Amino acid sequence: MPELLTILISGLLMGCIYALLAGGLTLIWGVMGIVNLAHGEALMLGCFAALYFAATGFVPPLAIVVFGPLFFLFGVLLYVTIIRRIVNAPELMSLLLTFGLSIFIKNVAVLAWGGELRIASYLEGSFAFGGIYVSKARLVAGLIAITISLGMYAFLRYARQGQAIRAVAFNRRIAEQCGINANAIYMIVFGLGTALAAAAGILAGTIFAFTPLVGEQFILKAFAITVLGGMGNFLGALIAALLLGVIEQSVTYFIDAQISAAAAFVIIILTLLFRPQGILGSR
Amino acid sequence: MLEVDKIDVSYGEVPALRQVSLRVEKGTIVSIAGANGAGKSTLLKTIVGYLTPRSGVVRLNGETISGLPAYQIARKRIALVPEGRGLFSDMTVEENLALGAYSVPDRGVIAKRRAWVYELFPRLSERSAQVSGTLSGGEQQLLAIGRGLMSGPEILMLDEPSLGVMPSFVDRIFEVLGEIRKSGTTILLVEQNVDRSLRMADYAYILQTGEVVLEGKGEALLKNDMVRHAFLGLA
């Protein structure tokens, strides 16, 4: 029993980090209709931001406070310079452009920082109570991640700007008729999505070793989560992310860690076969 | 107040409006009638900025607005209640109304307007927390009108408000238009229900294949032979 709870808690905490990453991806898809293949690279840059923070002697998760706004601005800059051109363009255009962007960013990162494994670890050990073990670093990362995700959800649900974002996602034209500047909303959404991915990276970088290619593994998981949660559905992504975290952790424990990476693929296939609209999607 | 001056609009190479001019004076109801494909919706879309005229201009209170982005035109207090209602159907009644007032900075003003809209449409107030896509067709139309009113428009434009609405609700909608006009809001009405819309209008224009073929006081047009023939099915 304590083993099962350990797996469950550990999986949920990991799921919280996935939720942060996938929330950004699904937000950008839902509002802008863009499949952002460079989303994993924002996470990777977040990992290095955590590393930089650790190297300068700060607690790495705090990098979110400093780098969060910077990554938001980075996303805005990307939008204004290039992403803007592919909003409302055929999907192939957005795939090609963001794929190119992804290759570009990770190769620049390899050139700049090299390809060896690193980790921004700062907190060792686990909490133990009644036979349940929870890694301290993972607990901190998971709790910060879920706080940000829930905050984001509340923002989309209740804030005026959040309502405007949902309005543009639903129908750009009608939103504009209400006086909402859709282009400004797109810019904000791309900035937010990028910042969410980077925040996920900052937290993930404190738990896992990474290289400049770390985005590749994570984006696959983010896609699986987006499909499972319903494309463009933020709350769906949150729930799906927690599920994936627990599933991966269980597979690792009961079968093999090597196979746990396949969990995401199995989820994509099963969802597309049996519930293509995702758990919270409609149609 | 609103002035459309000799506009030409086309979809690609296909002309949709030719040299169309019309004037809407403050505080009046102006009606646009015409068969399907005559260019009525194109005209409204041009006024709100979805389409840009090839030549000619649209002016609001003397200021040229054609060529501005749609959201800026909306902020000049021109509200469109689109054909098919165009609600944010996955959001609640309350959220739809809030979005209608998106460009209004003052919360007090928004609250006052919401109270007014709920007074006009008590049904909406009963259903304020309901997701708008689950309302009946007539209720959705009332909500679309209510959302249009939330911006405090100088001019409210309605595209086929009685389309797809139960007959008993159509009466209510025309009644409401009368009340809205009494509040000082100017109305530009595109309606398939030509008889009723001309009866209500101070002034009306008849569009045919992209051109204004007839204009005049609403009551006068009702007596016009061509109108009686083409739209009212009278000999």
TrEMBL record, chain A:
GO MF annotation list: transmembrane transporter activity
Membrane-spanning intervals of the chain: 6-30, 37-55, 61-80, 92-113, 133-156, 184-210, 222-246, 253-274
Locations listed in the record: Cell membrane
Record bears the keyword Cell inner membrane: no
Protein name: Branched-chain amino acid transport system permease protein
CDD domains recorded: TM_PBP1_LivH_like
Gene Ontology cellular component list: plasma membrane
Entry annotated with the keyword Transport: yes
Pfam families: BPD_transp_2 (PF02653)
BP GO terms, sorted: amino acid transport
Family, per entry: Belongs to the binding-protein-dependent transport system permease family. LivHM subfamily.
Keywords tagged on the record: Amino-acid transport, Cell membrane, Membrane, Transmembrane, Transmembrane helix, Transport
Topology in membrane: Multi-pass membrane protein
PANTHER family in alphabetical order: AMINO ACID ABC TRANSPORTER PERMEASE PROTEIN, BRANCHED-CHAIN AMINO ACID TRANSPORT SYSTEM PERMEASE PROTEIN LIVH
InterPro entries cross-referenced by the UniProt entry: ABC_transp_permease, BCAA_transport_permease
Coarse class of the protein's main subcellular location: membrane
TrEMBL record, chain B:
Gene Ontology biological-process entries: L-amino acid transport
InterPro entries per record: AAA+_ATPase, ABC_transporter-like_ATP-bd, ABC_transporter-like_CS, BCAA_Transport_ATP-bd_LivF, P-loop_NTPase
Pfam families tied to this protein: ABC_tran
Keyword ATP-binding: yes
Gene Ontology MF annotations: ATP binding; ATP hydrolysis activity; branched-chain amino acid transmembrane transporter activity
This protein's UniProt keywords: Amino-acid transport, ATP-binding, Nucleotide-binding, Transport
Protein name listed in UniProt: Branched-chain amino acid transport system ATP-binding protein
Species this protein is from: Bauldia litoralis
